[in-house]
Amino acid sequence: MELFRDANIDWLGRKWYFLSFSLVFSVAGILSMLFWHGIPRGVDFKGGTELTIPFDAPPNEDHIRQALSSAGIHDSVVYHVAAGPGQSGNDEIISLPLSSATDQAHDAGLQAVKDALQANYHDSGFGQPSVAIVGPTAGKQLQRQAFLATIYSLIGMLVYLWFRFELIYGVAAVVAVFHDTLITVGAFSLTNQEITLTVIAAILTLIGYSMNDTIVVFDRIRENLALSRREGLADVVNRSINQTLTRTVISSGLTFLTVVSLLIFGGPVLRGFSFALTVGILIGTYSSIAVAAPMLVAYQDWRKSKGKVANLPAKRVRA
Amino acid sequence: MDKNLKIKTAAIIAILLVFCYGFLGIPGGLSPTSLKQALADHIKLGLDLKGGTHLVLVVHVEEAVGSATDRDVQRISDDLQKTAGVSGAQVHKLDPVNHPDTITVSGFPATKASDVRSVLTGNDYANYDVTSQSDGSEKVTMKPTAIRDLEATTLQHTIETVQDRVNALGVAETTVQPYGLGANEILVELPGISDPQKVEDAIKSTSKLAVYAVVSGPYENDQAAMTALNNVVPPDDMLVHGNATPTSPDEVFLLERAPQVEGTDFRDAQPSTDVNGRPNLHFTLTTEAGDRFFKYTSAHSKDSASPGSMAIVLGGKVREVASINSAIRDQGEIEGTFSKDEVDNLSLMLRTGALPASLDPLDTETVGPTLGAASIHQGVIAATVGMLAVMVFMLFYYRGAGINADLALILNLVILLGFMGYAGATLTLPGIAGVILTIGMGVDSNVLIFERIREELRSGKTAAASVQQGFGHAWITIVDTHVTTIVSAAILFIFGTGPVKGFAVTLTFGLLANLFTAVFVSRVIFDAHLAKKERGAELSI
After folding, report:
1. Which residue of A303, B337, B362, B530 is surrounded by the most CB atoms within 10 Å?
2. Residues of B in contact with A269 (CB under 8 A)
3. Could you tell me if A109 and A235 lie in one domain?
């Protein structure tokens, strides 16, 4: 069984559709980040309130989460305190990110949780919660380090691609990755979902995946350029994408399948994580065809218009 | 050819077993429970997946104020003598316990009052307010804003140091964060570790180490000391309990309040052994501290005019009293009957930086996984369902070769888990994200190879040639994608912390495993298959 044995789609011809699609989503994302929901951040980044609630009977965490979300309290982290000296084993910790660090905000949070549980949690009663204020797990320093680490890793990848291909390939791949990250974070902002540390890990994953996909296409382009020197770049790129289409659809499709399975069956806590991966894989695959490849052609056209020698020399590489 | 293949197959099986051992050890049996137990014993899970211990500690930030004023007492004394030429001034803290922020300067002639004032209001003491008292002395008090800043910096510094120390103990994926509003408490989260007491002890014992000059002593007990001092403890000195040597009883010493060497002065500390093979501590001080120490030790070494001894105080108790054999500049050894553990702990404390203030544990509780046990369960099911779907598809689309891919996938996971087990790495959700990427790239590698083989077959080549060409071409692509991602993972590992590092670790291991299975193992299976068939036979792909 073959999926796309003789595909012959003119990908580059559709580049304006791709461009507008990307622009619409990027701009929507940016606008949302700037003016609407901002970039919603979780307890990991903002810190918040930690309530320890003693329940009268062994608590059911799923019911607690439902009770909170039906009262409109989302983005809380609920976990269990084990039995031990001084602990009955019926305590749950509920961590809420808060928008401000004032006492009133913390009190309001406490009251909201108590009301929500009172109204919606029927498994057992509960006692007076103790309140603590927690700082962010990922403080400013960690955030900055993570950000710098990612930037350095992108530079590292660019340098490697420069070495194995040409500079423009590296630049195109990195631009595609930026595009993917922007749209994914924009998606979080548009749907007002929290960005937690695990979401950051998912974003790193999608960077890796997008790179992988882009490099596969580039590799084919390089091979085809070496084989036929007379074809125009646009034709070579189109052919390369068509040749790798089967592989792209299967690989991305399978990974997408796993991630969607996680999104559907993985439960509410993993939702942010799986959402980032789902969007990321789609966009990562899309960007290799719609952003990275057209950039190569656009770059060559630009050099042509400047009157420079317009060919992307393809090094014959031995692995 | 056949023998070559046999060697390769044997190698693969051997590697499989080696990595299986990495994450399973030698399991008690083959039942699911004993396998699960073996797995749990070897793979460490992070706080989000397994839970762990919450430790709440209070940081005595006020001690930082005391230390700062102690240092400034010394500085004021020096400055008054040298710069202002005022001699005979007495600089000390009248009430170090209740008012550690106040220094009193007295005993100087009234004619020098303006000189004294100009020194005290100079730039060096911008953090202090100076008020003249009715009895002619000057009261120097630290400004409230300066106190608050100092306490905030102390808290931050303590958090960083505790984080370093807990990490250095090999407990990975911990977090240390501020806790409570304005209460100077910190929360240390330790993922499911087998010996929380050891970590707690290491943190609790991260109290201050300092070297003080001994003024007099030892006295039998507090009363004896007070009697000898005529019931007045000089304001510049303090009484401290402890032992002159580990075998001597608890005695009381009179030490100078300002330490000669503090924790912050140590640049490095390493455990080593002395000539007799006993554990001791080799230390290196910063240059500035080294100069100060040299001045002190040469002035008071046993050959000097006023030989003295030094007391090493740890956690508020005298740990050791040593006479000063010779002048020490910035390198030296602390000897004594230390045990190996004590020396290791002590050097760790000094190396990772001194805690600016001491800690007291307030509360310990064991918490469940932050992701919630139910979520993890659901996640595992979802992931398994996903993987099975992938494997079924591979069989369906690639027929015989699909078995290849599925085997490679399973082997991939085995090697990855084995790596994790051997490296003692902790698995967290970000780490699992790395695993997902690895599986994705693993599937991709296989698809690349198979598609290429199909292409070659379509262009008319024989099965054997197609396999060769297919692997040959696909190898270049696989190298490019994997090396790029490994470069990225390496950089993330070096520069990242916490979850970013966890992600980088699983990714790197996974990609190395991938390179091995997708190319070597897959090829061996194909070759084995081809060797069995006759020439020109069909390849099931």
Report:
1. B530
2. 371-372, 375
3. no
